[in-house]
């Protein structure tokens, strides 16, 4: 697969080449035409510095070091220093091991050859220090940049792994809860069918009504089964046996959070609507996560929770004060709780929004309830 050359790969060498040609023409040094040509060739080689640094960065430096043999000395124009710096930086930044040092050693050997055989002026230790001061900083900078880039990639991979694990854990939790819901529905169908069998001869009309309830329960169970198969990832067969919670359990949940120090203003419909079991348990979990976020990240440990129902949808709105205009919370959380809420809402075909409005973090979820 051929590596793609980016715009920056071309623009930087092109800019240096333009500066080099302009400088050579303005200085009008002996052999400046050859010097300008070699600078352009060196810059052209730098286009491939990111994808094949050992080849192109090293060749660019070697072409640059030919200039004293056919044109001006390297210490007369300034632009060759830029070419040298970019080449050395590339050897450090894009070569994963220390082979870049070997290439740099070759360049230094040829550079000192220029001093020994082409530049006939007297040289001493200060010239060595001058050359090292030119090549050491870009190489060190390149290695540091590479190390930071690798750490950034590792951090991003770790964050993505954590995110995936959080989504999977939430899917497992949803699957376990829906398993309980389906088991309850099937049990209810068995009981209702048995009752209908007893009534079919003595009270056919009542038996018909019971069988209609069985059909409704079966349709709901089929819908929940489809959702369950979509998210089921229970590799360890850890299906829970506790009854699945729902809207009826919200007062107890709120009371527990109040005991933990969260002042909750609760607004529930009265009477509570009859919901499909999957929507009922997911609504409970969404409220639970919203209250957890308010307790952890709210600025004054207060929150307002409103649950409303229509014939077609259940809406949940949770708000709490925040002093963080960027993230919507007083301190930075992982965001994994919101991922779990989003997973539930998406599973049920609902809508979710969250963000900061007028100094308050607002989470709104809408779940369809039509079966």
Short recap of the structure:
The chain is of the alpha+beta class. It has eleven helices and five strands; from the N terminus they run αααααααααβαββαββ.
Strand content: 5-15%
Helix-strand pattern, N to C?
Answer: HHHHHHHHHEHEEHEE
Domains, number: 3
Mean pLDDT: 79
The end-to-end distance, rounded to whole angstroms, is: 51 Å
Shape: elongated
If strands are numbered along the chain, what order do they take across the biggest sheet? Answer: 1-2-3-5-4
What's the CATH class label of the largest domain? Alpha Beta
Main sheet, how many strands, which sense, barrel? Answer: 5 strands, mixed
CATH topology (fold) name of the largest domain: Heat Shock Protein 90
What does this protein structure show overall?
The protein has 371 residues and is an alpha+beta fold. The chain folds into 3 domains: 7-123; 163-231, Single alpha-helices involved in coiled-coils or other helix-helix interfaces; 247-368, Heat Shock Protein 90, CATH 3.30.565. It is 63% helix and 10% strand. It has 11 helices and 5 strands, in the order αααααααααβαββαββ. It has helices at 7-27, 32-46, 53-64, 67-70, 79-94, 99-118, 125-199, 204-231, 250-259, 277-297, 336-347; strands at residues 263-267, 302-309, 313-321, 351-357, 360-368. Strands 1-2-3-5-4 form a 5-stranded mixed sheet. Strand 1, helix 10 (277-297) and strand 2 (302-309) form a beta-alpha-beta unit. Helix 5 packs across helix 7 (125-199), helix 7 (125-199) packs antiparallel against helix 8 (204-231) and helix 7 packs across helix 11. 30% of the residues are buried. Mean pLDDT is 79; it is low at 233-242 and 325-332.
């Amino acid at each position: 697969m051929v590596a793609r050359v980016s715009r920056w790969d071309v623009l930087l060498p092109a800019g240096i080449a333009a500066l080099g040609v302009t400088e050579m023409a303005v200085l009008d040094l002996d052999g400046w035409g050859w010097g300008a040509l070699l600078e352009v060739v060196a810059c052209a080689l730098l286009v491939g510095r990111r994808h094949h640094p050992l080849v192109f960065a090293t060749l660019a430096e070697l072409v640059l070091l030919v200039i004293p043999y056919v044109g001006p000395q390297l210490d007369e124009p300034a632009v060759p220093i830029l070419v040298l710096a970019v080449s050395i930086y590339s050897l450090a930044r894009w070569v994963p091991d220390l082979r870049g040092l070997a290439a740099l050693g070759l360049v230094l050997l040829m550079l000192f050859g220029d001093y020994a055989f082409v530049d006939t002026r007297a040289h001493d230790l200060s010239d060595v220090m001058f050359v090292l001061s030119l090549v050491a900083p870009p190489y060190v900078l390149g290695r540091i940049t590479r190390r930071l880039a690798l750490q950034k990639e590792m951090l991003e991979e770790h964050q993505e792994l954590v995110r995936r694990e959080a989504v999977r854990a939430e899917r497992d939790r949803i699957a376990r809860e829906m398993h309980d819901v389906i088991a309850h529905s099937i049990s209810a169908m068995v009981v209702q069918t048995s009752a209908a069998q007893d009534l079919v001869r003595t009270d056919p009309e009542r038996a018909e009504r019971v069988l209609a309830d069985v059909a409704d329960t079966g349709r709901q169970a089929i819908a929940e089964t489809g959702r369950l198969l979509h998210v089921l990832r229970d590799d360890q067969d850890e299906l829970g046996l506790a009854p699945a919670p729902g809207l009826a359990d919200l007062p107890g949940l709120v009371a527990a959070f109040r005991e933990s120090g969260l002042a909750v203003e609760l607004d529930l419909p009265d009477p509570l609507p009859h919901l499909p079991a999957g929507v009922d348990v997911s609504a409970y979990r969404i409220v639970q996560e919203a209250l957890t976020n308010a307790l952890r990240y709210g600025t004054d440990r207060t929150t307002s929770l409103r649950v409303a129902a229509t014939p077609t949808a259940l809406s949940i709105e949770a708000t709490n004060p925040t002093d963080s205009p960027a993230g919507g919370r007083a301190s930075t959380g992982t965001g994994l709780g919101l991922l779990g809420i989003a997973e539930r809402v998406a599973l049920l075909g609902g809508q979710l929004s969250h963000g900061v409005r007028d100094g308050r973090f607002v989470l709104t979820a809408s779940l369809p309830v039509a079966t």
